[in-house]
């Protein structure tokens, strides 16, 4: 019962917008690679900082990497007040976000999304993967949404990254690169802020970073933050105003031990907690997606964003990540070992009384209390722990031949625990769920202490070996290739128990076990040609995959319910160009792509007697995504940076999806040949400008803004909605305007900002038809217009 909630295509050079955003690498890599990294840099240019990335697990200039990458530097993240996926996704061409609550996000790159529980985009912190590799722990909707405090940069790698990064990178990869400790430097900063949202509450934030050397060979860097984001959705039924406020707090500590230039050890620990009151969604008319105008429980008129609930809802998410990285220069190669242990915990509670159609009243209602005297709430607890070990050898940077070989191992344990629990209406007091039924041998009575409990334990293990090499055929022509062989093995244990099972004709307890294993070979080939010192073209063909696995089969499910689903694979074909003027006042980065996606994993929905709608994972035939992106960076005058990007994406099903049972007597395809993939807009665009100038007395002033546009998006495949209303659910496109301005009196900086100045009501998620009171659907909006101010002090 796993819930599933122009002419070129470009790589955003957003980091170029400020030379200060050029990236640092780890201390040992920086010293080792400094000479090699500058071999293509023209001497005497006005912008001496280069953009350095680690997309190929070695420090390289962005100009030298033959694949599509966006880089957002830490200064730009801070300037934009971008602290989460929702804030910076708009800066990345072809990146969209499907979000139901903070910490409950699905990342979509280049339209690679069909729903389901397994992720298509991987999330990394430095060289460490975070989050589940499969859908057994709802990995697709629990992407690690880390706060960007003291993040050096965010790298977004598009297209499959299966050779160096392994499974679940069909659409690409989001990589947080943290700021390393600095030897011999004492530095720090502190920041405080306040914000208020239209028709909502007020929030505030505070953060601090401190870097301290301990002698000549050890440095410690620590960061911590607290943010309270104000709410703006009222909960009717509980009379809660602005109920969806969010608290997020956490920190990071990193220790660097570097006794010599050729040897270093870096230890890291990170934690983050997200506490979301209520839900970030409101109830809307399923035809127009406008907020409902009446209270579903009383019939009284309501206005604004409202949500019906009679039991207090919330969503908590906790991240923990511990890692250690060793770099040792052996002369002929650098040995790198990265070890990590991480945990993810997600606890949610929702009122699902209306979704279950009065089941609470039917079984637990009081005869004299009238209708709607009992409801059902739904605790959904998901946890995961993950151990990873990667060891690799990489050659020094060279003008002739570079190579990298390595091995990878992960062991992941997942746990899902769900319940149906009755409560009293009004008041929300718990009702004892125990029930005695005559379902024992010979009609004897059996006591059931629970109404319904679902438990799923899973384990995923993967072993992989990989290699990557770049042959500099000439001074202008490079050929890069990579291979990876992976073996994964999965097992699941499912327990369902409670009185609902015999009431619906099943047996309690119901225990099922499953397993799967598979071998996968992925590869990539990337030629690159330098037209000049300031321009290059590249092509890339690459294969990626996503593991399959066993399904959770509920009692009473028919023979069509899939007991397991298969791996899907994607082959991408891409060509791109990067170019800049000699003085770096203009740069362009663009590419075209064609993605061939086979055996696509999709959400399947079935009617199970006595339980209702149950979802799982299955496979469809094929989908195709093709498109183009282009990003231009301009510096027409000193102090003014302009970045403009546009992306076109055509992502559609190639063939009908398999028919599923939704209780109408025949199998119904949830999607048809030619349907757009979910949350894959055809067009996205962003134009940003920042201007900085000197003031008398040594201070600097700055002002800037962004205009972001996104076209219509089809939502998840929902056959019930299509059958009832005769069409696919579509979210209207929208535009947002963000502005910021401030003064830097070094070491103090003041900033004021407004997000969503035009108060767009853009949407990022629509829930399934029939899951809310009446005919309403659950709709998640972007945040309304938000004003804020920050003050920052650094030394």
Automatic annotation (TrEMBL):
Residues 30-39 have a biased composition (Basic and acidic residues). It is a multi-pass membrane protein. CDD domains: ligand_gated_channel (cd01347). The keyword Methyltransferase does not apply. Keywords: Cell outer membrane, Ion transport, Membrane, Receptor, Signal, TonB box, Transmembrane, Transmembrane beta strand, Transport. Residues 281-757 form the TonB-dependent receptor-like beta-barrel domain. It is found in: Cell outer membrane. Its main location: membrane. Residues 26-46, 280-304 are annotated as: Disordered. PROSITE patterns: TONB_DEPENDENT_REC_3 (PS52016). It comes from the Bacteria. Residues 1-22 form the signal peptide. Residues 63-172 form the TonB-dependent receptor plug domain. The keyword Membrane applies. Pfam families: Plug, TonB_dep_Rec_b-barrel. Belongs to the TonB-dependent receptor family. This is TonB-dependent receptor. The lineage of its organism: Bacteria, Pseudomonadati, Pseudomonadota, Alphaproteobacteria, Sphingomonadales.
């Amino acid at each position: 019962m796993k819930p599933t909630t122009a002419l070129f295509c470009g790589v955003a050079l957003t980091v170029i917008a400020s030379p200060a955003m050029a990236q640092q690498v780890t201390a040992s890599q920086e010293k080792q690679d400094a000479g090699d990294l500058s071999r293509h840099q023209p001497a005497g240019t006005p912008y001496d900082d280069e953009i350095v990335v680690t997309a190929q697990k070695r420090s390289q200039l962005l100009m030298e990497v033959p694949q599509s990458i966006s880089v957002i530097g830490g200064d730009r993240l801070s300037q934009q007040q971008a602290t989460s996926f929702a804030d910076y996704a708009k800066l990345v061409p072809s990146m969209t976000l499907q979000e139901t609550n903070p910490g409950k996000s699905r990342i979509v790159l280049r339209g690679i999304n069909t729903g389901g529980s397994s992720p298509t985009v991987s999330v990394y912190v430095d060289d460490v993967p975070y989050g589940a590799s499969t859908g057994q722990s709802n990995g697709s909707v629990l992407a690690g949404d880390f706060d960007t405090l003291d993040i050096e940069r965010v790298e977004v790698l598009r297209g499959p990254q299966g050779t160096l990064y392994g499974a679940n990178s069909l659409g690409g990869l989001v990589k947080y690169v943290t700021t390393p400790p600095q030897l011999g430097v004492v530095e720090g900063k502190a920041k405080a802020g306040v914000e208020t949202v239209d028709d909502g509450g007020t929030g505030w934030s505070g953060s601090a970073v401190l870097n301290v050397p301990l002698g000549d060979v050890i440095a410690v860097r620590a960061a911590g933050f607290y943010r309270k984001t104000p709410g703006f959705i009222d909960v009717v039924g509980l009379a809660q105003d602005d109920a969806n406020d969010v608290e997020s707090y956490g920190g990071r500590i990193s220790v660097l031990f570097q006794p010599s230039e050729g040897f270093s050890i870096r230890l890291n620990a990170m934690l983050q907690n997200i506490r979301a009151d209520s839900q970030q969604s409101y109830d809307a008319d399923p035809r127009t997606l406008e907020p409902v105008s009446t209270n579903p429980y009383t019939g009284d008129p309501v206005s604004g964003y409202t949500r019906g609930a009679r039991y207090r809802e919330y969503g908590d998410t906790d991240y923990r990540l511990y890692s250690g990285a060793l770099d040792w220069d052996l002369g002929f190669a650098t040995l790198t070992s990265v070890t990590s242990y991480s945990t993810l915990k997600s606890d949610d509670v929702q009122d699902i009384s209306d979704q279950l159609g009065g089941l609470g009243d039917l079984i637990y209602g009081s005869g004299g209390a009238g209708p709607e005297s009992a409801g059902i709430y739904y605790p959904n607890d998901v946890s995961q722990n993950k151990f990873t070990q990667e060891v690799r050898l990489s050659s020094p940077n060279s003008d002739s031949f570079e190579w990298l070989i390595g091995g990878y191992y992960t062991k992941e344990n997942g746990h899902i625990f769900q319940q149906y629990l009755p409560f009293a209406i009004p008041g929300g007091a718990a009702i004892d769920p125990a029930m005695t039924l005559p379902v024992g041998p010979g009609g004897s009575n059996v006591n059931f202490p629970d109404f319904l409990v679902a438990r799923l334990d899973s384990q995923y293990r993967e072993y992989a070996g990989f290699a990557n090499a770049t042959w500099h055929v000439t001074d202008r022509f490079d050929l890069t290739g990579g291979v990876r062989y992976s073996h994964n093995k999965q097992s699941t244990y499912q327990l369902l128990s409670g009185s609902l099972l015999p009431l619906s004709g099943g047996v309690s307890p119901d225990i099922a076990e499953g397993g799967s294993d598979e071998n996968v070979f992925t590869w990539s080939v990337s030629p690159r040609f330098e037209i000049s010192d300031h321009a290059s073209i590249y092509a890339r063909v690459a294969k990626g995959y996503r593991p399959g696995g066993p399904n959770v089969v509920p009692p009473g499910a028919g023979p069509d319910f899939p007991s397991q689903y298969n791996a899907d694979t994607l082959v991408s074909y891409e060509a791109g160009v990067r170019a800049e003027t000699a003085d770096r006042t203009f740069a362009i980065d663009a590419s075209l792509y064609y993605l061939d996606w086979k055996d696509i994993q999709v959400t399947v929905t079935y009617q199970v007697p006595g339980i209702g709608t149950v979802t799982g994972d299955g496979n469809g035939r094929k989908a195709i995504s093709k498109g183009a992106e282009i990003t231009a960076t301009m510096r027409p005058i000193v102090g003014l940076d302009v970045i403009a990007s546009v992306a076109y994406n055509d992502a559609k099903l190639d063939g009908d999806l398999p028919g599923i049972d939704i209780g109408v007597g025949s199998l119904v395809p949830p999607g048809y040949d030619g349907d757009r993939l979910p949350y894959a807009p055809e067009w996205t665009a962003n134009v940003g400008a920042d201007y900085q100038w000197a003031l008398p007395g040594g201070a600097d002033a700055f002002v800037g803004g962004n205009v972001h546009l996104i076209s219509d998006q089809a939502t998840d495949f929902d056959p019930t909605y299509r059958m009832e209303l005769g069409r696919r659910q579509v979210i209207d496109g929208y535009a947002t305007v963000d502005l910021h301005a401030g003064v830097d009196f070094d070491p103090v900086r003041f900033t004021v900002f407004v997000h969503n100045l035009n108060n767009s009501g853009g949407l990022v998620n629509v829930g399934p038809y029939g899951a809310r009171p009446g005919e309403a659907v659950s709709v998640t909006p972007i945040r309304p217009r938000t004003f804020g101010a920050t003050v920052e002090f650094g030394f």
